[in-house]
Amino acid sequence: MYVKRCSGVAAAFMAIIVSSCAVGPDFATPAPPDVSRYTKEPLATHTSSTDAAFGKAQHFVQGREISAEWWKLFHSPGLNALIQRSLDANPTLQAAIAALRTAKEGVYAQQGKYFPLVQANAIPSRTLTPGVISPTLNSAANPFDLYTAQVLVSYTFDVWGLNRRAVESLQAQADFQKFQVEAAYLALTANVVVAAIQEASLRGQIDATNEIIDANKKMLGILKNQFTNGYASRNDVAIQEAALAQVEATLPPLRKALAIQRDLLTALAGRFPSQEVFETFKLAGMTLPPDLPVSLPSQLVEQRPDVRSAEEQLHSAGALVGVATANMLPSLTLSAGGGYTSTALANLFTQPNLAWSVAGGVLQPVFDGLTLLHQRRAAEATWEQATWTYRGTVITAMQNVADALRAVQNDADALKAARDFERAAKISLDLAQQQMQTGYANVLILLTAQVTYQQARLQVVQAQANRLSDAAALFAALGGGWWNRVTSPPELKLDVATAQVTPLADKHE
Q1: What is the pLDDT, as a whole number, of residue 264?
Q2: pLDDT tens digit string along 242-296?
Q3: Is residue 110 a contact partner of residue 166, using CB atoms and an 8 Å limit?
Q4: What percent of the chain has pLDDT over 70?
Q5: CB of 300 within 8 A of CB of 401?
Q6: How confident is the model at residue 504 (pLDDT cuts 50, 70, 90)?
């Protein structure tokens, strides 16, 4: 009879579990944006071109897959090596990876509540009771020793799916952190590429400025010679000296910017400023990618780490509505305990000293000052907030791609115009120098030609760097191809006391 009763109770509990449901909204993947392109006007098939370096036309390829190592399209061995070292040592990336491990462990911890809680204890004690109290023991011994050893088991049935929703929310948070790792990976690689291009641009501007300084020095020498021979005035020489000093004054800011850029690259590589990276970058050592992929807007929401992160936050917020709802409903708990109690340790584990108990309980909140109701409403408001945040993230992602596409097209036009400007300015400067040497031009005309040519040279260098940066920005805006990556960044452990870094093995593999 006892066995039948126990079987009946167990069957009833199983029926409750099987028929139970998880309250709260079930998550559904948001629909992709109902647009077919990023810009108002149709995207051109290619950009403009010119005869300068990095002036070739770039072609937009709709639907082309993005390489996981898209930076290799710039064909810079130094850049490839620096990015690899940065991925192996960047603190921000490693911090994101550690946060992912934390989130995973939170999921595993919550999943443990699917199982009963089993505890064991052993309690030895010695007790003296007052004489006015009846003897505690049958033997009337006082004081007395008491030894207790027991096992306690408790289990709260997940009738309303409270624990399932909690696990669902934590899993969504872990997935959110996974995409945060991808976002950190993408930001790191893109920042290294852009910083390297900026360094190359600064070096190009410094080289161009030095060339202009050399030309100004030669012209100053000619003017001084003409002044000695009476063909030029002292005022002409002074004007050229001022022009030379003005050009030379532009060098320190460029050198300062270059030094700062080197510090940035060193920091991205996870090193201190005194441990500067040995790679140096020049525009001549890079190649402009001729073909640029353009993913469909419906694909972008699956590729962008920030959009996927926002989606998982939406998922987590929806699951927490279920948690808040389940907290308002009855909870069913079953507990049992069994063990031995004796006054002598030697005969503790014998049949007369056996004791056990089984209990079940139902807990239903009756009045809590509407705390649980308002907690549920707060969870619903958070869920609504997450929906708007997700939409805003999608809009920003689309904007990033549109901006990058417009930059690629317009900066190609800018390079073409800068190249035309440089060509015309060089002709004007050559004519002014020839006329000045023969004494048929005013020094102010020469000065104007020199300043114009300097501006043209710098504009060309900056426009060339912009085209490289635009390509990098487009790859980053499209998600960076993380879904095609075969291996993950290494997980490292840092010993703060010794500053030693060692690989960290995944305990769950």
Answers
A1: 96
A2: 988 988 999 999 999 999 999 999 999 999 999 999 999 999 999 999 999 999 9
A3: yes
A4: 94
A5: yes
A6: confident
Closest CA to 182 of 319, 302, 61, 318: 302
Domain ranges across the chain: 24-115+160-329+371-503
pLDDT range class, residue 343, cuts 50, 70, 90: confident
**pLDDT band of 505, cuts 50, 70, 90:** low
Q: Is the pTM of this model over 0.85?
A: yes
- CA 240 – CA 259 distance, rounded (Å): 30
pLDDT recorded at residue 5: 47
β-bridge partners, 121: 150
pLDDT, position 10:
47
d(CA 180, CA 307): 10
Question: Cβ neighbours of residue 456 under 8 Å, at least 6 residues apart?
Answer: 418, 421, 422, 424, 425, 426
d(CA 434, CA 453): 15
Hey, what are 184's tokens?
């950190």
**Chain centre distance of CA 55:** 33
For domain 24-115+160-329+371-503, which CATH number applies: 1.20.1600.10, 3.40.50.360, 3.40.30.10, 3.40.50.300? 1.20.1600.10
Give me the long-range contacts of 102-108 (CB less than 8 A, separation at least 24): 102/177, 103/170, 103/173, 103/174, 103/176, 103/177, 104/174, 104/508, 106/170, 106/173, 106/174, 107/167, 107/170, 107/171, 107/174, 108/508
Residues 75, 287 contacting (CB under 8 angstroms): yes
CB 444 within 8 A of CB 496: no
Which stretches of 41-115 are assigned E, i.e. beta strand? 59-62
Q: Which residues contact 232 (CB under 8 A, 6 or more apart)?
A: 223, 226, 439, 443
Asked if the model's pLDDT at residue 198 lies above 90, the reply is yes
**Amino acid found at 443:** V
Q: Which amino acid is at 17?
A: I
- Cβ atoms of 460 and 211 within 8 Å: the answer is no
Is the Cα torsion angle 83, 84, 86, 90 positive or negative in sign?
positive
